[in-house]
Structure formats: structure tokens, C-alpha cells
Design a protein that fits this description.
374 residues; alpha+beta; conserved putative lor/sdh protein from methanococcus maripaludis s2 fold; Elongation Factor Tu (Ef-tu), domain 3; OB fold (Dihydrolipoamide Acetyltransferase, E2P); 4 domains; six-stranded antiparallel beta barrel; four-stranded mixed beta sheet; 20 strands
Length: 374
């Protein structure tokens, strides 16, 4: 009985050993096949590292401000009796805009003018008496002083009466009217904004290390996204001589002609300060750069080792990047002029990856990209 069990166990061991051996052999052959299976090439677009002439410049952001701008308010309390402007109207300096109730003020002015006239008559009468020697010099001086006081009271009342009429302090464009006829205003209540739009100014800031590179008279360019990316040229008119201790920046003001009056106070603008003659830099389209936390890189296309002349693969190289302009970015190091690099399909690439190049649908980069019209 024991002999028969031993034989059966031996046969079972041989059978199971053969099964597991075949399984192991099959897996091993499959792994060898996969390891040695050729990697299919990835289709990419390519571009070439090329030189371009870029002018030295500084970039910043700023806000437009009116050369003359004010929110017009009431200077005294009163009820509105007349409104002489419309929202959005262009006005000249001195144009009457609004009047407040002034019956009491005009009446007081008439009373004071009458008193001044009476004082002046009395002063002339005493002058004649003084010349005849009938009265003393002090009596004549008193009459003269009373006349001057009366005239001063008239001028003061005229000033108070003028505060009842609002006039444009300078030429410009009115905003939206904030008051209505018959409304009671208190001193300081906003009536309308007035902005002088041509010319217009721009305020922006630059880091302190750029202080020696900007000065009044230097050309400046701005792009206003709110106006469809329109560009405008102007010049720097002032540089703040003091550095902000908190931000380590200094303020700059530029001025722009604005005959169309399309530039408005408060608009955001992208600023470019031109610093001098162009210099040659190596550039690539931004799409050719693979950005990551451990460094920026490109995939350089090369002839595949051990392959035929048309077999290509890529090798990853880390690069140092500089300024970006439009669709391009400056490459300071990592590649040289003439290197061909992948410009699309970067997420599918790794060093040694075979590739094929198809540039039929490659987008053409531009220094001044713009959305398609129509």
C-alpha cells in the first residue's frame, strides 16, 4: 500500500511540475518578446532653433489716468433749480453745469451793495469836509475804512453766491449725471465726473534695479486688452526719484496722445519700455518647451543609433529660458542654432523614443499673435 502511494505522489509531482514549468516557460518567452518588441514611432511636428533680433525692453503693467480729472461735487447745501448739461457731454472750461436755489443770497448781496454805496457816498462827503478843515483826519479815515469794509462784505457775498453755480473747472468729457432737478444737495455730494482725455497718462512701477535704464523722453508702448489688443505709443514724462521701501519699486508716468479718446482713465494696460538697439537671441515656439517642477526641457530630434538614415528618435535636454514674446521664448542655454526639436506631441515622448515628422498641420508661431478675424 505504501509503495502504491509513493508511486502516485511521484506521478502527481511530475505532472504538476510539468504544468508549472510550461507556465513559467511561457511567461518567460512572452516577457522576452515584449522586451525585444520594437517601439512604434510617435508622429510629431518639429521646429528649428533660430536666431531673431529682439530689442532690449522692460515689461510691466499699469493703469491709465486723466491728466485732469475730478469728481465734481456741491460746495454748499441747496436745492437744484437748473441743470445745464447731459451725461457724456463734452464741455469747455467755465461752462455752467448746475445752479442751486440762491434767492436769499442774491437778496443779501443787494443789501450789502446798498450799504457799500451809502458808505462810499459818506466817505466822499467826509473827504470834502476834511479838505476844508471842518473834520479831523481820524474822522475821514474812519469813513474810508467803513467804505472798504462794506465793499469787502459785497465781495464775500458774491463769492458765496458763486458757490451756488457749478462750472466746469477745465475742458473735458462729462460722465453720468448723478442728480436730478429739484433734488436737495449737501456739500460734498457727487454730481458728475469730468475727465480730460487728450492727452492721457499712464502710471506703472518697475523694480529698483531698473532705475538707471528709464528716463523722461524714452519711448514706451502699451497694449490694451479691453480695446481688442490695440497698441499705442507714447513717452515717459516723469520718474519717481524715491524707491518704495515696502515693494522696492519706483513709479513711472508716461503720456499718450489720445485724439480718438478711446483710452479711458482706469483702463489696464500692458507696458513695454524700449531700451535700445536689437540684439540676436535664439528662440523656439513655446509649444516646444516641456515645463516641469524639476526643470524645463526640449526633445531634440536626431538620427536613431544603429538605424537607417531616415530612422529618427529624440533625446531630452534641459534648457534655460529667457524672455517670452508672442508665441516665442528665448532659449539661453541647452540647445544651439539649427537644432531640430519636437514642437507638438511632447507628452508622448521620452529619451530614445522613435519619431516620425509630419509638419503639414503645424501652427506657425508669431511675435504678434492675434485671434482670427471673422
Amino acid at each position: 500500500m505504501t509503495k502504491r502511494m509513493v508511486v502516485m505522489l511521484a506521478i502527481s509531482g511530475v505532472v504538476f511540475g510539468g504544468v508549472f514549468g510550461m507556465k513559467w516557460f511561457g511567461n518567460q518567452m512572452m516577457n522576452d518578446f515584449i522586451d525585444n518588441m520594437p517601439t512604434p514611432p510617435v508622429t510629431i511636428s518639429s521646429t528649428t532653433v533660430t536666431p531673431q533680433q529682439w530689442a532690449a525692453r522692460l515689461n510691466a503693467v499699469g493703469s491709465l489716468v486723466a491728466v485732469k480729472g475730478a469728481d465734481l461735487t456741491a460746495e454748499v447745501d441747496g436745492t437744484i433749480t437748473k441743470i445745464s448739461f447731459e451725461s457724456g457731454q463734452s464741455v469747455e472750461a467755465g461752462t455752467e453745469l448746475l445752479s442751486l436755489e440762491s434767492v436769499a443770497e442774491r437778496g443779501e448781496l443787494a443789501r450789502l451793495e446798498a450799504q457799500a454805496k451809502l458808505a462810499e457816498i459818506e466817505q466822499r462827503r467826509r473827504e470834502k469836509l476834511y479838505k476844508r478843515g471842518t473834520i479831523s483826519k481820524s474822522e475821514y479815515d474812519t469813513a474810508l475804512a467803513e467804505t472798504n469794509v462794506a465793499k469787502a462784505a459785497v465781495e464775500a457775498q458774491r463769492g458765496r453766491l458763486n458757490l451756488k453755480t457749478l462750472r466746469a473747472p477745465f475742458a473735458g468729457e462729462l460722465g453720468i449725471r448723478r442728480v436730478a432737478l429739484g433734488q436737495y444737495l449737501r456739500a460734498g455730494d457727487k454730481i458728475v465726473t469730468l475727465q480730460s482725455l487728450d492727452p492721457i497718462e499712464l502710471d506703472f512701477s518697475l523694480p529698483e534695479k531698473q532705475l538707471g535704464k528709464v528716463n523722461p523722453g524714452r519711448t514706451i508702448e502699451i497694449v490694451v486688452d479691453a480695446l481688442g489688443g490695440r497698441q499705442f505709443s507714447g513717452e515717459i514724462i516723469a520718474v519717481e526719484p524715491k524707491i518704495d521701501a515696502q515693494t522696492r519699486n519706483f513709479d513711472v508716468r508716461a503720456r499718450f496722445a489720445n485724439p480718438e479718446k478711446v483710452l479711458k482713465p482706469g483702463l489696464f494696460a500692458k507696458v513695454t519700455v524700449n531700451l535700445g538697439e536689437p540684439t540676436q537671441v535664439l528662440v523656439l515656439p513655446k509649444t516646444a518647451i516641456q515645463y516641469s517642477s524639476y526643470g524645463d526641457s526640449v526633445f531634440v530630434i536626431r538620427q536613431q543609433e544603429g538605424g537607417d538614415a531616415e530612422a529618427l528618435d529624440v533625446i531630452q535636454r534641459f534648457v534655460t529660458l529667457g524672455e517670452a514674446r508672442g508665441d516665442f521664448i528665448e532659449v539661453i542655454s541647452g540647445v544651439k542654432e539649427g537644432d531640430e526639436v519636437a514642437s507638438t506631441g511632447l507628452l508622448k515622448l521620452r529619451s530614445g523614443q522613435p519619431v516620425t515628422i509630419d509638419n503639414t498641420l503645424r501652427p506657425e508661431p508669431s511675435l504678434t499673435p492675434a485671434p482670427p478675424q471673422g
